[in-house]
Amino acid sequence: QVQLVESGGGLVQAGGSLRLSCAASGSILSIFDMGWYRQVPGKQRELVAQITGGNTNYADSVKGRFTISRVNAKNTLYLQLNSLKTEDTAVYYCARRVEYLSGSSYFSNDYWGQGTQVTVSS
Q: Beta strand pairing status for 116-121 and 105-112?
């Protein structure tokens, strides 16, 4: 089995910074990171940032302020949030496609983190 554990959300003033983490554990063979998403009540979940190989992509609303990265040795995905604005307030989710072994069987499943609340006050 695989677990994803998110951490790092919280309450911060506008202009402040946070770093979100998404750690995967289990008998992991490889991970394809689908990215970081965020959602506010009443709105669709939106893609914030992606990382594929050495390439990164960002939503226009966060370009220049957010940075996605990962440490493969730790099976951990990060999102650095700088110059936060009140409109960044949302629940943030990581999404990762994980290939793993269970016994002698191979599996590939998409996993979502449990979500971490980011609240930016004015």
A: unpaired
Cα 97 to Cα 23, 37, 75, 88, 109: the distances in Å are: 13, 14, 12, 25, 6
Please tell me the distance from the alpha carbon of residue 18 to that of residue 108, in angstroms, as a whole number. 31
DSSP 46-113: EEEEEEETTEEEE-TTTTTTEEEEEEGGGTEEEEEE-S--GGG-EEEEEEEEEEEEETTEEEEEEEE-
Q: List, for residues 62-92, the tens digit of each pLDDT value.
A: 999 999 999 999 999 999 999 999 999 999 9
Smallest CA-to-CA distance from 35 within 19, 56, 60, 4 is with 56
Question: CA angle, 32 as apex, 62 and 74 as ends, to 5°?
Answer: 85
Task: Give the separation between CA 25 and CA 6, rounded to whole angstroms.
Answer: 12
Confidence of residue 42 (pLDDT cuts 50, 70, 90): very high
31: Cα within 13 Å, side-chain hemisphere:
27
